[in-house]
Fold this sequence. Notes:
The protein is an alpha/beta fold. Helix content is 28%, strand content 19%. Helix 8 links the parallel strand 12 and strand 13.
Amino acid sequence: MAALKGIINLSRTLKTMTSTSRPCCFQMSKKTYFTYVNEPSMPIPGKEPCWLKTADEAIEQAELDSDQVVFVQGAAATPVESLRAMTDYGVRCDVRNVRLYHMHLEGAAPFAKPENAKHFRSISLFIGGNVRAAVQAGTADCVPIFLHEIPRLFKEGHIKPDIALIQVSPPDENGYCSLGTSVDCVRSAVSNSKYIVALVNKHMPRTFGDAIIHVSHLDFAVEHHMPLPMHPVKAPSKEEQQIGKNIAENLVVDGATLQMGIGSIPDAVLSALGNHKDLGIHSEMFSDGVVDLVHKGCVTNNRKKMHKGRIVGSFCVGSQKLYDFMNNNPFIEMLVVDYVNDPKVVAKQPNMTAINSCIEVDITGQICSDSIGTRMYSGFGGQMDFIMGAAISEDRCGMPIIALQSATSKGESKIQPVLKSGAGVVTNRAVARYVVTEHGIASLFGKSLQQRAYELIQVAHPDHREVLEKAAFERLKVMPAP
């Protein structure tokens, strides 16, 4: 009885707050006890979003204020128009020290301009290109964290968003919207945010799994129909094609479960898998190359023990072809990243083949993927989640693979005697298994430092091998040998 009275009192308090401190429009969106059940798929009785005409009105109604915390959905679902409106409002009203938490964002990032540093501070959970300069200049920041642990930040209260800016598909006949291309940590963030401001976009693919959110959970909603940000597929270089061939022909077996990111090297691997059978996809993200393999009949997911017959992902970015493929497609399950990227879940996938890239590798097998020396470049992402999951695979058939071109566009070797000063080690030398360049495959498991140096020098660019051998001798006091 005491608990019931507490619930009633909480509901009355919240109703009083909304009636006295919010504009009339907000009455449609008033908070009640049911809001705090925090289950996005459960309709909230008697609650509707406050529908507004513009993102500017939504930011104003949400009462963005100094010292608040804002979460922003990322990747292809980045609410670019809401970010524009938020920045304009913050500058106009001289709002100070608003902290924005997000994974990588697409589109413009006006909040990250130097002149807006007093108003907004971007804090990346994975650094995208549009905020990289701000992070390196110190006007923005980042959080080093495994991708699968990001939802914990919201669940455990390390980050408590006042406002969540998201983008969803229009509600269906039952009132359900979809988070579309980006579920990842979004579900956890919106479940623990005070207010949710949503762009409702007919171009957002309707996806399933953990993507559904009932329209009653949205506090402020704006119809804004714009095509999603796209990453057109670029033709791989000759070197990238060879890397793809090396991996596809030597390390990917029929029935393998694949994880790979976005970019020319993953696309080159996928394009080389046209003769493989019964492949599965369990990846935090996937792109256009997967669509082609599905249409060729190479991806069936029928050897998976979990989510059999389904592609499993958590977020995506690609071309319109990818978004059309995802829309209303029950073949795809978009799930939360703390599940998809959990190394224990990854380890259960049959023949788990994890293909990731990096910035540089040293001759002992240390993998730097998040920084160029001391300059932060990206983040941990899902690399260690999947490399470790594949390394500890339950069927002992996992393939943890790091793929990179042997040299930079300026001709500098990406395989180095030592990592640059201050470089971050994302994948440590004990977990590194296979390093692949256009010149071959270095197998590192069970190898000594002397043997590792030999393996890695063999796949380095020929122009750098002699220098690497001399440097290896200076470091290890012994010549590299098989």
